[in-house]
Design brief:
Blueprint: E1 9-13, H1 18-29, E2 33-38, H2 41-54, E3 59-63, H3 69-82, E4 88-91, H4 107-135, E5 139-144, H5 157-177, E6 182-189, H6 198-201, H7 204-211, H8 222-233, E7 244-247
Parallel strand pairs: 1-2, 1-4, 2-3, 4-5, 5-6, 6-7
Helix pairs in contact: 1-8, 3-4, 4-5
């Protein structure tokens, strides 16, 4: 590896599996110190151990429920105190507790989806960005959105709403923070083989709704999203902000 992120500190929420873990591994391989944040201690410990096996001392763990504003603030403060000011944030933790007609959505599921997928992203972004602004330092904030935020997706209405809002938030913050050297971008994955998408990936009919339409004709892998996150975190993307980069195997163009 080339050390593209040497000397940098990154926080990755939802970092114990899937896209988050793949991103943490990629960042560590390029020289970053990575804070893996997730709800469950067991998952955090396993992720940190797996990363440090290959990149000793690169990964640190912290439990955090991103739907809890106090928990998010504690995560940012702990990172500042332990490793220094984080200059990379990957907002990746997500949930999708309800799958069905939008009008039948239980309000408990609505609240949970918005708390984790949107409020959690905003609170983490605000905490990191305020630190960078106070220090007069640039940075990169990467929001994992979804192709569901770009077009209608039946039976996943509330989840799609949160991802559309993440894309809107990305654009506005990019405008507000750009003059300070803080870049804000989003990634819109298509169908990726993760635990969150397991219900779709494992169902032949539902999976086919994506793969039959995608130009590449297959489900994506977490590493394929991590590569985009690495690019956005690095100086190679120094002139990229406010963008939503679609990584979906050509599903969205059909």
């Amino acid at each position: 590896m080339s050390g593209r992120l040497a000397g940098r500190v990154a926080i990755i929420t939802g970092g114990s599996r899937g896209i988050g873990l793949a991103s943490a591994r990629a960042f560590a391989a390029e020289g970053a110190q990575v804070v893996v944040a997730s709800r469950k201690q067991q998952g955090v410990d396993a992720a940190v151990e797996s990363i440090n096996t290959h990149h000793p001392g690169a990964a640190y763990g912290r439990t955090c429920h991103v739907g809890d504003a106090a928990d998010v603030a504690s995560l940012v403060d702990w990172t500042n105190d332990t490793l220094g000011l984080p200059d990379i944030l990957v907002n990746n933790a997500g949930t999708n507790p309800y799958f069905g007609p939008m009008l039948d959505t239980p309000m408990e599921a609505w609240d949970k989806t918005f708390d984790v997928n949107l409020k959690g992203y905003f609170e983490a972004t605000r905490g990191v960005a305020r630190g960078l602004l106070a220090a007069g330092k640039g940075g990169s904030i990467i929001n994992v959105a979804s192709v569901a935020g770009l077009r209608g997706l039946p039976l996943q209405g509330v989840y799609s709403m949160t991802k559309a809002a993440v894309i809107s938030m990305t654009r506005t913050l990019a405008l507000e923070l750009g003059a300070s050297g803080i870049r804000v971008n989003a990634i819109a994955p298509g169908l990726i083989e993760t635990k969150l998408a397991a219900a779709v990936v494992k169902d032949d009919e539902m999976r086919g709704m994506f793969t039959d339409r995608a130009a590449l004709g297959r489900v994506g892998q977490p590493d394929e999203i991590a590569g985009m996150a690495l690019y956005l975190a690095s100086d190679e993307a120094s002139y990229v902000t406010g963008q939503t980069l679609v990584v979906d195997g050509g599903w969205n163009i059909a």
